[in-house]
Amino acid sequence: MIAPTISLPNSHSDSHSHTFYLPPELNADRPPERRGLARDHVRLLVLDRKTGEIKHTRFDRLGEFLRSGDLLVFNSSRTLPATLIASAPQTDVEVRLAERLPDGSWMALLKSTQKENPITPDLLLDFGLDLTATVLSQDERIPALWRLRFSKSGPDFLDRLYRLGEPVRYRYLSSPWSLHYYQNVYAQRPGGSEMPSAGRAFSWRLLFQLRRIGIETANVTLHGGLSSYLDDALDRQHIASEEEYWISKDAAEKIRRARRKGGRLIAIGTTVVRALESMAQQGEIQAGHAYTRLRITEDYRLQLVDGLVTGLHEPEASHLDLLTAFVPANTIHRAYAEAIGHHYLWHEFGDVNLIV
Amino acid sequence: MNLLTDKFALITGASRGLGREIALAYAKENVRGLTLVARTIEPLQKLKSEIAEITPKAQIALVQADLSSPADVERAAAITLEACDGSLDVLINNASILGPVPMPFLLDYPAEDFQQVLQVNLTAPFLLIQNLIGAMIERGGSIINVTSDAGRIGYPGWGAYGISKFGLEGLSQTWASELVETSVRVNWVDPGSMNTAMHRDAEPDEDPSAWANPADVTEIFVLLASDTGAHIRGQRFEAQSDWRQTLSALSVGAEAGAPWATKI
Predict the structure, then answer these.
(1) What is the mean pLDDT of each run of 10 residues along chain B (264 residues)?
(2) B2 assigned to some structural domain
(3) DSSP labels, chain B
(4) Residue B1 located in a structural domain
(5) In this structure, is the dihedral angle defined by the CA atoms of residues A339, A343, A344 and A345, taken in order, positive or negative?
(6) How many structural domains does chain B have?
(7) Which of B73, B138, B180, B264 to mutate to test the interface with A (most CBs of A within 10 A)?
(8) Which domains does chain A have, with CATH numbers?
């Protein structure tokens, strides 16, 4: 086995370096159901916020680490088939939708298949089935992203997208898994470029079981963008994207009630942490629709969220910075070294980490 | 008539027959919104304008889909979830196909047709419920599966259709029991013999004038979708029998005896 190498925190930086070697065999290359496991039988690494103690168990035993009155907050965003192929004059273009803007246009990652024919403003992309898009402008901060306007909107756009698109997939997969593998069982409104994968291991059976022992659930919606711009140098910069989120009246009420009764708030996914903490910074827990650019790191004092269910993150991923708001970086590093030693699996179809 | 003013419903097989009549009946109850799904879009467009005459405020989304394709089912679900803002109240699994007509004996049934009938009549309802349950479970909702007498009795010559309805009855019971602790209710309705194009295809030698007009069997579908029917779960209804009797039996707790109405 290759020994995990975890770097020490870099004292000269405001952010920790979380470099470690992730052996390729620890990439989950298929959904658990396709490696002979129930979706809720993936592994669970439990990290105790107070003691730093690490426990290894199975995800369907999550309830053993929760208490009656705790509130699990999910991101109910449904994953779109956000990858499209278009033909443009003299080249084909791969389009990965990143974010829908308030005016109905989209930010998208565009990649020309022929380098000598780069993307330019006014380029017309033809997807077939009467769907086209005009390239408008390049993003100022993230040059791989462009703003697009499609020829269709609303249900007509969604209809074409579902006929033509494929889910955003990464290289470590063993097969082009179809869209339904990229949905959480509780998913509601479509809009995410990628699955909010921290919740993938939840089954209805487990959700009902948790409810029976007094664990409440609430949903917020936050349509996540792309986790990678397919450019290592760019990805390393961790440019904070702006994310749009909705908190329903029902969710706000459940959050207020849980707080009042002393229940803990457990965010399912780092995006939920950002949405809830952004709301907390407004001073009041209330329903609404807003945008967040909140960057949560070691120095951030969590105001609302007590615990987190999350996947295992890649070396250097900005999500690891967010985890240091819950536990010190060296505890994360110790947990990750154990996870590697115990052959935990990484990425959207992989194993899960509970920090509480 | 305002039984459904706050409800958003998805109806499959809405272009003709019973599905179309349920859509019109819901429009008369001022339904908040509808997603109408069918293999061809033109009859749905016509239906949409008829609905707009009845209740102009209703939001109507149309989806052309071949429910034998899981990708089409997923697309129909996604368009519905967008249209209803992620909160669906009513799902009516009405679409079904007969398979080849005249219906061959099961002994002679082409395997490919058998599979297609099961895909549309059984797998599509399974997938639709699975795709949409997340949008129903928070606020509660009503799932109504359209079954048939041929789903209880293995009539000769009713081939894959009958078998798919046997499956749908089992699916309904299993879902009803799995969802017993939630506020999503599952019921299934046998509409009885109706004068529809499908039934005329199935029994070309019979006199269709003896069969009910599908417009006359929609009342139970309105009741089960509305808050008035919020306490009814895990029940099979026959739309042309005295289903009110089933309902009054319910009010004295008869449902407790049904395995799909007991807790898992």
Answers:
(1) 95 97 98 98 98 97 97 97 94 96 94 97 98 94 97 93 98 96 96 91 90 94 95 94 80 48 37
(2) no
(3) --TTTT-EEEEESTTSHHHHHHHHHHHHTT-SEEEEEES-SHHHHHHHHHHHHH-TT-EEEEEE--TTSHHHHHHHHHHHHHHTTT---EEEE------SSSPPPGGG--HHHHHHHHIIIIIHHHHHHHHHGGGTTTT-EEEEEE--GGGTS--TT-HHHHHHHHHHHHHHHHHHHHTTTSSEEEEEEE--SB--HHHHHH-TTS-GGGSBPGGGG-HHHHHHHSGGGTT--S-EEETTS-HHHHHHHHHTTGGGGSGGGS--
(4) no
(5) positive
(6) 1
(7) B138
(8) 24-79+176-355 (3.40.1780.10), 83-164 (2.40.10.240)
pLDDT in tens, A120-176: 999 999 999 999 999 999 999 888 999 999 999 999 999 999 999 999 999 999 999
Token digits of residue A64: 């053993």
pTM (2 d.p.): 0.92
In whole angstroms, give the CA distance from residue B4 to residue B225.
8
Chain B residues whose CB is inside 8 A of the A208 CB are 181-182
We report the CATH number of the domain holding residue B41 as: 3.40.50.720
What ipTM does the predicted assembly reach? 0.91
Write down the residue that tokens 């009042």 correspond to. A260
Cβ–Cβ of A208/B83 closer than 8 Å? no
Is B128 within the bounds of a domain?
A: yes
Contacts of B133 in chain A (CB under 8 A): 185, 204
Range(s) of the domain holding residue B83: 8-261
Range with lowest mean pLDDT among A22-26, A278-282, B20-24: A278-282
Q: Find the helix or strand (DSSP H, E) in which A95 lies.
A: strand A91-100
**β partners of residue A142:** none
Q: Is B44 on the interface with A (CB under 8 A)?
A: no
Catalytic one among B26, B109, B155, B161? B161
Q: Is B155 one of the catalytic residues? A: no
> Which residue's structure tokens are 């290359």?
A29
